[in-house]
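User: Fold this, then the next.

Assistant: Folding the first:
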Amino acid sequence: MRRIFVAVTAAMIFATLPITARGAPCLVVTLTGTQGGPTVFNGQAGAGTLVSYGDDGNGCAAVRLQFDAGRGTSMRLSQINVIPVQLSAIFLTHIHGDHTEGLPDVLALRWYLKGPKVDVVCSADTATPSGSVNSCRNYITHIADAFIGSGEVAERLSEDRERLAGGPAELANVLTFEPKEEPKLVWTSGDVKVSAIRSTHIAGHASYRVDTPAGSVVIGGDASNDTPAPPRSHSTSD
């Protein structure tokens, strides 16, 4: 009789425990900067878009993807209580300064705060019509040269040896791809998939599409002012 009582009591307790269910998926798009071109207009930040995905339980913040990092990106992120350490990956549409000037700051802060390595996704080296080469990889590889040359990296390392010895550039796991005429998958994490396609703004320019269970968003970069790319009637795909 006692065994039956214990079994029934345990069943009643189990039945009253809360059941943890996954919340509804959500997608949030935040413009971290909308200024195009090398000039400055009334404090506007340079081009950048933060795409955050998650569910109701984690405040839509399980995955945070930063597309481009123009001037003032870290400051704009701070206004929504996001720090560079919390970024899951960084994507560059192209290497014009108005889309990349904020990246040294983002990586330097991540390094200073001892964040983990982060994927930086961008086009492979691409020859330009003038004979030069647009190289995202070279940009990232040398992004901390000024910090190293000034002695700051060495000084910060002497303060805390847990920081990576190579400085901010060592934090970046550079993943390059060749933009094609059709979309190709360039990055995934769980339910989040990022595809890229060639666009014609400059050699090596790519536009991205993020697909999640909560919806999709396209980051065109500077594709909107491109000339058509035959056989397409526009710069990117439908």
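Now the next one, as you asked:
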Amino acid sequence: MPLLSGFLRRTLALSGLTSALLMALPASASQPEDLLQTLDQLEHNRPVRVQLLSALWRAEGKGDDREEVEVSVNTVINRGTDGISVTYGWPLLDRLDAEANRLLEDPDARTPTTDFMWRLDLNEVRPLLNAAAPLRREIQRSSFRTLVTDRWQGQPARRLIFDRDKTVLDERARKYVKQFHSTLEVWVDDAGMPLASRLNLHAKGSLLFVIRGEYREESTQHYQVLDGHLIVRERQRWRKTDIPGEHHETQLTQTLKPL
């Protein structure tokens, strides 16, 4: 079986980095240290220009009070020598203006596009363009459990499984959470290249022994090597919060298309 898939080999050949990567990367990812070494080789801030397609489904409430909203946003992200810039097309800007005008007539009018824009801030976008660094941090704050033989989208792979404890939460959340379970899974191919990762989190807590709540999250990322560095070509994130008086569920899907 070849060390790299046909698609990955062609991609690296176009960038002129195939030989260098094959010499630098470990032969396999049998331990977290091997994967961290691979990520070091894939952590770059080379110029890249992509189209980011984001779609959000959100539900609030329960029963007859349940409301669902769907919204999609297209942007162009450019990372150059001067930093990161985001281009918002006129159709998107027109939608934002329309929602602002709607509030003049009805202060309680829905503004789904406006409410969505915070999800496209720098902290949300930057990890998509240089995925090696945030993945490395997630691994370093986790405890390695085991390695299993697996497949990812029909391709032979190894799956590294990590456990995470409450230290991944902020101080305020740790005081509230009483039950916590979280795992990180990373799929790599035979050459040690990361293919995907999945983060699961389930937390239950109580405040003053009266207000009890539950939170679940699952985030899956599909990776691609582009010009010698790792990007997220697709991300899916599902979140659900259930506490008295507040019931929220969201599904965010984002896709990057190099331009």
